[in-house]
């Protein structure tokens, strides 16, 4: 038995050695080939592909080129929050790679090449939307005259968000060239045979409101990838020439996703090419806290606008019936707005403290106007203030249209002169019809406060009607921003609701004040009349009682 066990053990060792000698190199090679194949992905040209990246693993992307007129591709990788690195080389170098949630580069092709390849990697597991778009020798090359960023050819849009605006910067494009040919020199001459003839069209596409999902972003990226898709789905917001700064200042819409894209055009050859689109939510975007964007508004802001909205709806339907309550509301709006603008313009206090001070000053200002109504009446003066608030809102609505993007209104003095003039037109015209002016002011201002209540909980662009005016008053450089309006389904519903509330408010106030004087008597005057009627100079007995006693 002992010999049998020894023989069996020797035979087993012999089999193991045979496997190692005959199959080890081949198995490792197979595993090596298998691993290499798993890290290589072929994607179709011009078709977005979802690629799942493992943390710290590099994936090689291969694109087959069948058209001999293609001289290169612009490759891009898009994610929602996490950074992804795209590179021309497997070993990352600063001059041949770019990192970001929207990353891209130009991949030139050598003579006779039928494939283009590049590498993507990420520090964490992430899904990326990868696309390769071809360009020919007649097309301009995005970012090929880069003198500012580290990539030699940088087709990326470099985006920076602030509280007030979104700043987009890009590298100038160059004219195209054949494979292996030297590209035209960028800044030697400025004639029509150089890159200075190129023009740039900025486009923007807004993602669906209240939808911050990854799928929604990728669907938007697909619509803003090629020139044809950008022209079909995007909204043109600016046109730049090669002689202008390669900068664009746009509005920041918090929690409303937007995608910026840039098309460079060659007017001489009638060709064009698209830069890498870039997305933003104008809020904190990081893998550590990706759900920050879902928290629309702070609790203090929601409480503030909830109380203001409820009180505003009361004023909308019954403001002219209760004048003291109305002028408390009007004073709160006027003094609160002025205090907020002054605090944000000349102090560095936090938003919460600024909101508290605004509420306190607004209540004090409203109390002053309400007391003026109680003590002095001052009907014409107070109705004029209500009309000014109404005219201010109307002027803000007018400048919420594309009119604000007209270059002449980039001038601060001219803008404010026009704004104030428009705000004064309505109250001056209707001042002789004080009751109508007051009822309209209550209905429109109160109903808008109700819309702001909804805006404290749901993303809507209607709150920016006044917020854009506040931003311009607080930050003078905001005048350079392009302000496209992301009107979507929610906004149209709220506009209709605003109109219905205002109409209902007018009807309600007219019904409550029917068969009554245009304005009720001042409370102090009413009290004085009652006091005088019961003064010591009046007889203790009325005329009827006096007759009864004599009889």
TrEMBL record:
Keywords: Membrane, Signal, Transmembrane, Transmembrane helix. InterPro entries: TM7S3/TM198-like_dom, TM7SF3. It is a multi-pass membrane protein. The chain crosses the membrane at residues 299-318, 325-343, 349-372, 379-401, 413-433, 445-467, 492-512. GO terms for biological process: negative regulation of programmed cell death. Its main location: membrane. It comes from the Eukaryota. Residues 1-23 form the signal peptide. It is found in: Membrane. Residues 306-510 form the TM7S3/TM198-like domain. GO terms for cellular component: plasma membrane. Pfam families: Ig_TM7SF3_N (PF25992), TM7S3_TM198 (PF13886). PANTHER family: TRANSMEMBRANE 7 SUPERFAMILY MEMBER 3. This is Transmembrane 7 superfamily member 3.
């Amino acid at each position: 038995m002992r010999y049998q066990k020894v023989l069996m053990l020797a035979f087993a060792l012999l089999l193991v050695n045979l496997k190692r000698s005959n199959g080890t190199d081949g198995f490792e090679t197979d595993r090596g080939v298998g691993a290499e194949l798993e890290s290589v992905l072929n994607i179709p040209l011009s078709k977005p592909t979802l690629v799942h990246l493992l943390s710290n693993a590099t994936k090689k992307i291969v694109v087959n080129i069948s058209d001999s007129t293609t001289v290169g591709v612009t490759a891009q990788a898009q994610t929602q929050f996490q950074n992804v690195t795209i590179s021309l080389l497997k070993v990352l170098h600063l001059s041949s790679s770019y990192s970001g949630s929207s990353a891209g580069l130009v991949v030139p092709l050598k003579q006779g090449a039928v494939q283009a390849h590049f590498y993507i990697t990420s520090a964490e597991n992430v899904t990326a939307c990868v696309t390769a778009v071809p360009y020919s020798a007649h097309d301009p090359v995005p970012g090929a005259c880069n003198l500012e960023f580290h990539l030699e050819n940088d087709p990326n849009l470099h985006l920076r968000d602030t509280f007030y605006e979104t700043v987009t910067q890009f590298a100038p494009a160059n004219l195209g060239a054949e494979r292996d040919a030297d590209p035209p020199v960028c800044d030697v001459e400025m004639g029509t045979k150089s890159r200075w003839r190129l023009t740039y069209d900025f486009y923007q596409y807004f993602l669906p409101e209240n939808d911050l999902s990854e799928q929604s972003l990728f669907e938007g990226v697909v619509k803003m990838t090629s020139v044809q898709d950008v022209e079909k789905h995007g909204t043109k917001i600016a046109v730049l020439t090669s002689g202008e700064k390669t900068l664009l200042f746009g509005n920041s819409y918090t929690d409303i996703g937007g995608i910026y894209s840039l098309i460079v055009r060659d007017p001489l050859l009638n060709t064009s090419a698209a830069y890498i689109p870039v997305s933003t939510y104008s809020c904190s975007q990081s893998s550590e806290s990706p759900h920050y964007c879902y928290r629309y508004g702070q609790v203090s802001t929601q409480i503030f606008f909830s109380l203001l909205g409820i009180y505003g709806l009361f004023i909308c339907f019954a403001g002219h019936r209760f004048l003291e309550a109305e002028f408390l509301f009007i004073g709160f709006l006027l003094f609160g707005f002025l205090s907020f603008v002054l605090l944000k313009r000349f102090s560095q206090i936090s938003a919460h403290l600024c909101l508290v001070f605004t509420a306190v000053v607004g209540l004090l200002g409203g109390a002053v106007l309400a007391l003026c109504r109680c003590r002095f009446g001052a009907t014409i003066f107070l109705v004029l203030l209500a009309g000014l608030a109404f005219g201010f809102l109307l002027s803000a609505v007018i400048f919420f249209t594309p009119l604000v993007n007209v270059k002449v209104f980039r001038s601060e003095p001219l803008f404010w002169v026009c704004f104030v003039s428009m705000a004064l037109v309505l109250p001056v015209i209707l001042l002789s019809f004080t009751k109508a002016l007051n009822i309209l002011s209550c209905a429109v201002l109160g109903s808008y406060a109700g819309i702001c209540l909804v805006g404290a909980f749901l993303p809507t662009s209607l709150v920016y009607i006044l917020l854009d005016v506040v931003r311009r008053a607080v930050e003078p450089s905001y005048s350079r921003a392009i302000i496209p309006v992301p009107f979507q389904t929610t906004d149209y519903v709220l506009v209709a609701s605003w109109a219905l509330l205002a109409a209902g408010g007018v009807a309600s106030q007219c019904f409550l004040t029917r068969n009554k004087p245009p304005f009720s008597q001042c409370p102090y005057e009413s009290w004085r009349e009652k006091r005088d009627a019961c003064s010591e100079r009046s007889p203790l007995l009325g005329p009827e009682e006096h007759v009864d006693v004599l009889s």
